[in-house]
Amino acid sequence: MTVAYLALGSNLGDRTRHLEEARRLLQERGARLLRESLVRETEPYGIRDQPRFLNQVLEVEWEGSPRQLMDTAKAVEQQVGRRASYRWGPREIDVDILLFGDQQVEEPGLTIPHPGLRDRDFVRQPLAELRPDILLS
Questions:
Q1: Could you give the angle at the alpha carbon of 123 between the alpha carbons of 110 and 108, nearest 5°?
Q2: DSSP structural state of residue 52
């Protein structure tokens, strides 16, 4: 089992329900929820002209590979109702892998630690809530 950290974000529709549904579906698909940060309302990143986000970080245990977790995250996004959009655009749900144990992964479509982790307060703050020992300066 590997401890991983996942970022959830939603800024379309019933944002709270989308986060709840994503947490439920991740657990149904094998991500054992250990802890969750507070949900925070944040300004959009990148493209500002869109609704505010609700963001949260989850600490989960995962039995499979990082790629399997990413595939699960994408399946959960689809099941919650995410529709195709543009980069940094509005979304019903976003599920990103921030960290996967102490592994570093550099594969097509998958980079761990998440490349935006150091620059984005909307994931840095909730991650620090769960793991204050991780310095992201």
A1: 5
A2: P
The residues carrying an active-site annotation are 82, 91, 94, 96
Cα 78 to Cα 90, 104, 116, 136, distances in angstroms: 15, 26, 22, 30
Distance CA 7, CA 66 (A): 14
Q: What is the pLDDT of residues 36-63, one digit of tens each?
A: 999 999 988 878 889 999 999 999 999 9
How many Cβ atoms sit within 10 Å of the Cβ of residue 55? 26
**pLDDT tens digits along 62-82:** 999 999 999 999 999 999 988
H/E segment holding residue 7: strand 2-10
The two tokens of residue 63 are: 């039995």
Please answer whether residues 77 and 65 qualify as being in contact, where contact means their C-beta atoms are separated by less than 8 angstroms: no
Closest C-alpha to 60, from 83, 30, 86: 30
Q: At what angle do helices 15-28 and 66-80 cross, to 10 degrees?
A: 140
Select from 110, 39, 36 the least CA-distant residue to 69: 110
